[in-house]
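In keeping with the milestone schedule agreed at the kick-off meeting, the structural modelling team has produced records for the first pair of proteins. Each record is given below as a sequence line and a structure-token line. The laboratory manager (R.T.) confirmed that both were archived under the project's standard naming scheme.
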Amino acid sequence: MTNRFGENDWAYGDELMSQDLKDTYADVKWTRMSGFLGMGVRALIGFSETTWSATRSTPYSIWTTTNRGQTWTEKSTNNSSNAIFVRCKDDITKALCVETSTTGHITATADSGITWTAKTSVPMGGMLTSGSYPTSSLMVVCGWSGTAFQYIKYSTNGGTSWSWATTPDNIVLLVDMYDGTTGYAVTSAGLILKTTDGAVTWTSTGDSCGITLSTGGCAGTLLTISATQVIFSGIGLITLYDNSAHTTTTKFQYKTETNRCLGLKKLNSGRYLTGFITGGEAGSTTLLRLSDDSTMANWKCLVLPSESKTSTATGTSFGLASYLSDIPNADTFILNLAEYQILKINGLGR
């Protein structure tokens, strides 16, 4: 494409160069955190402006900071592989750390990351890939088990015990509950499933999210925004699914589908922030996109500080969905770059 910044052959949409940030996003601030330097940062979750948790890969563990990343304290060593964070929708002080592995270790916090407690593991013959935490008691995870019809598990007692859900015979890679009753899931073939009984039974909608997912890594992100609407962010693609109309609409697409998603988050203003990394897992470039409004009709590029453009996201790619985290009730985000840099982004709420 060609716009006022010249020729660009890797993305659709308007591009903002760094020199334009001052005029266009005058209140956007980038703060580089160095307290985790060299510690192998992976997934991130923000509980407040000051308190965050992160997973570390050397060795695998969960750490928490209460002073905006200046210092960190180890809280758990329950996870033995890459993991993703899942915030409770009913209580923002609660969250899960779901290990994306065959052992399926589950760790939970009920005090904004100050303590993390091991829950009953959810072993899979293949791998856990996604999770949802709609209420304080209901937890849902998915993946592939190597056994037919065993792809989603749910707990109604806060992770003490887990039961297999009834599903079609399709590998499930993404799941997200809108509330304690209604939720959606996406299979490896891109088929959208729905539950209306609290994750006990899942049926096919007969609709597709618009892309075939990979069991080898980086399934993407599923974000339910109502009981009938779901946003899917995957490999180079963002789509909006409307269950009432049975339509899937593309909202953003890179020209190549090799760019892996770092997550999709909604701002208080209704706008959306997403991140992609291009190329292979090592030495790739991180690209952030901010929608103009809740319709996602137009997206702009947020150019990273020059010293923070490269990501070396390695390991199991399903964990990439937690490399970008919002801060609840604030238009502030934290982003993992290069496993040792954490950027804090302010001022996106205009």
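The second protein of the pair:
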Amino acid sequence: MEDARNAAKYDNVQAHGRKDLAVILHHLHGQGGADKIILAIARKMASSGHRVRLMVGRISDCSAREREVLTEGLEVIEIREGLTGKVGLAQRIGRLLSADAPDAILATKDAGNLVACLAAAMSGVSSRVVVRQAHHFTSAMRRKGWPRRMGFFLGSRLLFHRADLAILVSRALEEDLVRVSGLTSQRCVAIPNPVDAGELERLAGEPRSPKVRDLAAGPLLLAAGRLTEQKGFDVLLRAVARVRADGVEVSLVILGEGEERDALEGLRDQLGLAAVVHLPGYTDNPYPWFRRADLFVLSSRYEGLPNVLIEALTLGLNVVATDCPTGPREILEDGRLGRLVPINEPVTLAEAIKLGLTTPLDSVDLKDGAVRYELSHVVGQYEEALFGRLPAGGME
């Protein structure tokens, strides 16, 4: 019922005419899921006739071809952060906004949101400022150093009042963001991450990366994400060792790159999994692996709304996920579309993996469950948030 109300609320995709949107990113990372999501939304808006400017402080891990694809149809303005850091970046963006004010400003991720709010305050423009919160702020900050935690907390408190609206990728994020930022619930709206089902199907049909050869003949588990402590791949490795000890000859491919590679490879070897666990690194098209895999496993300690789960469902791939804050329970509809297990419990995760392999859910039901995340529908919700009437009480 709530999904139906949201669909009606954001139904009129083309109601607002041609608008001018500024998208602000602190750092465009070629492997960053949040960056790719916001740029997919921006490209869709540009293709429908809106003017979209991308103002970005830094671009990294992005080949010339990847950059061209990610920013197609956008006006890209790269503004170096420089020695003055985020404040200097906000000043330079603020001057650009003052000279050519957009109808709306959209930002994402903690640093980008703070830079956008500061730039808008410095510029004095009346543009609507919309920030996007894509992860559980408290869980993420708990793993940072004390100075960074306090910096982001105070910055959020001081600057988020400049935001007219916050887009939350999961309804479960609202309580956390309201507590941290001081925004009211009336200035928060839940809009999920989108997927382009047709494009995923096309990409999944391409030849698979040759980086992993001679996979074992048994069931293949797949995981994907940056190799960081957040993703819980250490727990997944221990779960795989348990599954194999119980006589199920699984292998595992983890797609992604990150600072935990050496630690994960060491743990893999220590567990005797070197021959059956592969870490081929980052690939710009992971979807042929979704076609090859028997089960996708998300082992994260926290998320926002993990798009990789939505993509797996869209391609009809069975999933097992940790019931972490936030997103998996919402995406998997309280376990109807995939098994949920507690975080940091390799034994429980191993049992869920075995059940997922022996009693898979129907792929048609999985695909049907992902329909609500289709790109065109989600972009319509973004257009309403950016250019439509603000919710009652949304302005203070």
